[in-house]
Amino acid sequence: MTDEAFSIDKRTLHDLLRQVEDGRAQLPEFQRGWVWPHPNITALLASVSQGFPVGTVMTLQSGGDVRFKHRPIEGATPKPGAEPETLVLDGQQRLTSLFQSIMLNEPVVTQDVRKHRVTGWFYADMRAVLDEHTDREDAIRFLPQDKIVKNFHGEVTKDCSTREKEYAELLFPLSAVFDSYDWRTGFEEYWWDRDKETQRLWGRFEKIFVRNFDRYHVPVISLGKNTARQAVCQVFENVNTGGVSLTVFELLTATFAADEFDLRRHWDKEVKASWQAPEYRILKDVSNTDFLQSVTLLATAARREDAVARGVAEERLPRVGCKRKDMLELQLDEYERFAPLVVQGFKHAAKFLHQQFVFDTRFLPYGTQLIPLAAILALAGDDAQSAGAQHKLARWYWCGVFGELYGGSTETRFSHDLPDVVGWIRGTAGEPRTVGAAEFAPSRLLTLRTRNSAAYKGIYALLLKAGAMDWRTGEKAEITGYFDESIDIHHIFPKVWCQGQDEDPGRYNSIINKTPLTARTNRIIGGSAPSDYLVKLAKSAESTPEVVHGHIRSHLVAPELMALDDFAAFFAARKASLLARVSAEMGKVIVDDGADAAVLDESDVEALEAAELAEAF
Predict the structure, then answer these.
(1) pLDDT at residue number 4
(2) Which of 101, 127, 292, 321 could bond to 326 as cystine, CB 3.0-4.6 Å?
(3) In sequence order, what DSSP letters do the residues of 238-275 get, joined into one string?
């Protein structure tokens, strides 16, 4: 923004509140509701009454190219169709609090410090205001809606339910601060025959309290009407540090609403509603921002394609992207064009993930990878459905998972993925950059111990894809069985047995010694040696050891080594089998460097797990 993009001046508080009253000053739709509790309002009123600064107000001039749906400040009732001259970006809580407490002449609906709803009126205790030893905040009183204060026994301790009773209590209603003539006249008449000294209090009170409201000026920063949407968002967030961060979805909701398009309703009723069926449960955590990112990827790709068709030079081509700035530049016609395609893209993504044996969000390696996946499937269309295309797509997906490439800042990778993978599928480009960048070190298997990491969840999916069966029943661990909450990852060589054999915890707690088992099978295993529980499993299954061994092999485990209780040989064989699977899915040669001989100690592994947990959230 340039120096000319905004102006700074001072306006009287009374003038600002009149603009609120008649609708010249309103709120953009993305502003959240008014939430200040009455002690905060009390402190604000006390500051104004003493002429203390209460901060600046920031506004945006209306009438520019970027339009926002608007609404009156709470409590204001401008004439129907009143168009604002300015929109309040910063200062909503202060302006609303002041408007309701001193302009509205209605009880203020607010909350107490425990966030319980309360309704009442603000008064100034005239004697307390004039007492130089009394803190001004203590001189501002909040009375109930009926203006009657009672103690715990229900006895009236203060009654301001009529003007005469206000005069008697020496409590001045703040709702009369800008039009105090009638109250002053009544006060002086009330005390004329009762107490001349009390009557004369008004003059001093008006001078040091009431006049400060009339004279109070508020610094106002006014942004020009041509301020860009991205700048409005950035400015709002910079000044809104004490509030909840404004999302792109909320800002676009406000801008699209100016063209009578309800983005929130479309998200709730058209988008999310379209994938409520059980087969789409993997999409349940997709957020509105995720969806907008996928739409923006398609919109920016279309802009770039149009520019190429017009012969725009390479260095001047618009980029494909879905960063915050890109999303804020999304136009309504672009959203309406690409949103239906992205809805279908996410549905196809769910089907693709099912084919990769990723069924549930608990074991979804990266929720973020759904964003480019949906966009890729939407843009590629039918080209992505052939066996060859699906193989390439799977390779890209698993390279992302086992390369652990989607855990940090990912928008740049998304912008590469869309053209790279679609071009690869269509045969117009080589391997995507994500595929080229992916690496999986064999030693990583030793540090995968909890489902906080994407690679851990990836191994789980590969075991299902390998045809893992329940050891006892032989039932395939596919969709129906593994949606059962009783199924989880458990040790193959039990932890208790490993501890008794002084095995290294860095090994026996790694994914190499774990596999998905039902709760019942795990109870049979208990803490026994494999040679013992294999017999118990065969007996429970009413089958032969050979049959049970066949079930176990489906988990890429050598039951013969388990029967010998040979943990070292089992560990080496399982590691090799898992690496072979990972290698096949990534389409990359993985050479075991024998790094498992130097297992990380517990503190190192715990540090890695903490990092993975932080990344997961």
Answers:
(1) 53
(2) 321
(3) HH-TTSPPPPHHHHHHHHHHTTT--HHHIIIIIIGGGG
Asked if pLDDT for residue 594 goes beyond 80, the answer is no
427-444 residue pLDDT tens: 999 999 999 999 999 999
Residue 255 CB-density burial (10 A; 0-12 exposed, 13-18 middle, 19+ buried): buried
Contact status, residue 462 vs residue 516, Cβ threshold 8 Å: no
DSSP 226: T
Q: Do strands 6-12 and 25-28 pair parallel, antiparallel, or not at all (unpaired)?
A: unpaired
Q: From CA 414, how far away is CA 437, in angstroms rounded?
A: 14
Amino acid present at 230 = Q
C-beta separation of 597 from 500 below 8 A: no
How is residue 497 written in tokens?
A: 């047995």
Residue 591 confidence (pLDDT) above 50:
yes
**Spatial separation of the C-alpha atoms in residues 179 and 185, rounded to whole Å:** 11
SS3 172: strand
Tell me, letter by letter, the H, E, C secondary structure of 147-165: CEEECCCCCEEEECCCHHH
Task: Give strand pairing partners of 86.
Answer: 25, 61
User: Are 377 and 390 spatial neighbours (Cβ–Cβ below 8 Å)?
Assistant: no
Helix axes 370-380, 411-426, angle to 10 degrees: 30
- Whether 137 contacts 46, CB under 8 Å: yes
Closest to 228 measured CA to CA, from 328, 90, 88: 328
E strand or H helix that includes residue 488:
strand 487-491
Q: pLDDT class for 5, splitting at 50, 70, 90?
A: low
Half-sphere exposure of 446 (CA within 13 A, CB side): 22
What are the C-alpha distances in Å from 533 to residues 507, 523, 536, 552?
Answer: 21, 10, 5, 12
Predicted confidence at residue 613, as pLDDT, reads 42
Residue 172's nearest CA partner among 133, 214, 206, 208 is 206
Q: Name the token pair of 120.
A: 């009442």
The one-character DSSP state at 148 is: E
Residue among 567, 552, 577 at smallest CA distance from 494: 567
Task: Give the three-class secondary structure for 25.
Answer: strand
Query: Token pair for residue 180?
Result: 């105090």
Asked if 337 and 301 touch (Cβ cutoff 8 Å), the reply is: no
Of 238 and 118, the one with more pLDDT: 118
154: alpha, beta or left? (left if phi > 0; alpha if psi -120 to 50)? left
- Could you tell me the pLDDT band of residue 397, with boundaries at 50, 70 and 90? very high
Query: 47: how many CB neighbours lie within 10 A of its CB?
Result: 18
H helix or E strand, kind and range, residue 489: strand 487-491
Separation of alpha carbons 102 and 99, rounded Å: 6
Per-residue model confidence (pLDDT) at position 239:
60
CA angle 611, 614, 617 (to 5 degrees): 150
Q: Taking the complete model, does pTM exceed 0.85, yes or no?
A: no
> Beta partners for 28?
70
